[in-house]
Amino acid sequence: LKAKYLAAIATAADETALEDVRVAALGKKGEISALMSGLGKMEPDARKAAGALLNALRDEIDAALRARKSGLADAALDARLKSEWLDVTLPARPRRTGTIHPVSQVMEELTAIFADMGFAVAEGPQVESDWYNFDALNIPPEHPARQEHDTFFMNRAAGDDRPPHVLRTHTSPVQIRAMTEQGAPIRVIAPGRVYRMDMDQTHTPMFHQVEGLCIDRDISMANLKWVLEEFCRAFFEVPSVELRFRASHFPFTEPSAEVDIRCSWEGGQLKIGTGDRWMEILGSGMVHPKVLKAAGVNPDEWQGFAFGMGIDRLAMLKYGIPDLRAFFESDLRWLRHYGFAA
Ligand code: PHE
């Protein structure tokens, strides 16, 4: 009996098999347990001798079971440690991280540059009433500038009596909102999205502008010129820039000027600051008295300048990117090529 069980214990492959052996030998209905309950019917002397033998047998088998059990547990642990082994010295797999989009980056840069000159940031909605987008900026309904803006109009169901709305065609309506809210004096920029029905290599239906507005008691075009030169020097990171003011026309400024920056274009390389070319970068002028009035600012007391600049254009110039449309296609290969994504 002893040899039979010790052999079974030694060959039990795992803890379940071992438990079966234990039940067969020492369980309630086990072989050895049965023998022990038979002791009661024996003569006292025979019982004493057999009892001692059975007790010793039981203890020996019990000890063998325990030893085998802890041996099996150790082996299982060893196997697990082997299979789940981890080399913590392996180099980590490279991980791709997100980066800031060039347009967002340029917006952050220019916001910081203008902040140094005392300009706060103002905001307005992208879905704008046509009063803010046009009328208040001295563009009445019959004005030809309305057609030139290639406007997206918001659809209105029959019977909808809300004022007509458009996708703002420029950031200039933020001039009106900022002056109405804060009055004068005021010094703000308003970066944001604008929309026009236009699509080619240098135009997308959505693009970004930054508006500038500076109103005080004796602000002049000279202040405008200095602010723009300071901005361009800082933004393009060149020691000096030359700007050219060309007389122009905007309904909301008088006088008005379009501003070009001196640059060169050699061997496919654009250089800002020197050269024999001029590139248009913005529209500007002295805020029209009618515009001040529409925003509740007294034109007999206050005056100042405004300008509007294309942000995407600035980003293209700064990073030498030829096609504007690629900015908004979210093509990772393109973004990586220009170093805008990891
Ligand atoms: N809003 C004009 C445009 O979109 C730019 C501009 C802004 C011109 C402010 C003058 C003053 O073209």
UniProtKB/TrEMBL annotation:
Location in or out of the cell: Cytoplasm
Positions that bind Mg(2+): E254
GO function term, MF aspect, one: tRNA binding
GO cellular-component term (any): cytoplasm
Cofactor(s) of this protein: Mg(2+)
Parts of the chain that traverse the membrane: none
Catalysed reaction, written as an equation: tRNA(Phe) + L-phenylalanine + ATP = L-phenylalanyl-tRNA(Phe) + AMP + diphosphate + H(+)
Keyword list, A-Z: Aminoacyl-tRNA synthetase, ATP-binding, Cytoplasm, Ligase, Magnesium, Metal-binding, Nucleotide-binding, Protein biosynthesis
Cross-referenced Pfam families: Phe_tRNA-synt_N, tRNA-synt_2d
EC identifiers of the protein: 6.1.1.20
InterPro entries in UniProt: aa-tRNA-synth_II (IPR006195), aa-tRNA-synth_II/BPL/LPL (IPR045864), Phe-tRNA-synth_IIc_asu (IPR004529), Phe-tRNA_ligase_II_N (IPR004188), Phe_tRNA_ligase_alpha1_bac (IPR022911), Phenylalanyl-tRNA_Synthase (IPR002319), tRNA-bd_arm (IPR010978)
Span of domain Aminoacyl-transfer RNA synthetases class-II family profile: 104-342
CDD domains hit by this protein: PheRS_alpha_core
Keyword tRNA processing: no
Co-factor: note: Binds 2 magnesium ions per tetramer.
Assembly behavior: Tetramer of two alpha and two beta subunits.
NCBIfam families documented for this protein: pheS
Family: Belongs to the class-II aminoacyl-tRNA synthetase family. Phe-tRNA synthetase alpha subunit type 1 subfamily.
HAMAP family: Phe_tRNA_synth_alpha1
This protein's name: Phenylalanine--tRNA ligase alpha subunit
Source organism per UniProt: Paragemmobacter straminiformis
Gene: pheS
